[in-house]
Amino acid sequence: MPFDKRKAIFGVLIAGITGGLLFLPAIYFIGLAIAPPRPIPATAHVSPVVAEALWARANGGRATELTPLSPVVMAQFAACMAIEDFKDTTPGDARRVEACRDYLPAMQGVEYLSTVHMRDANLKPSFREGISRFATSVWLTRSWTKTEFLDSLASRGEFGAGLRGVEAASRAYFDKGAGELTLPQAALLASFIGDRSTAFDPWCEPTAAAQMRGRVLQRMRDDLVIDDAGFTAANTSELALGPPPADHKPCSG
Question: What is the pLDDT of residue 22?
Answer without folding.
Answer: 58
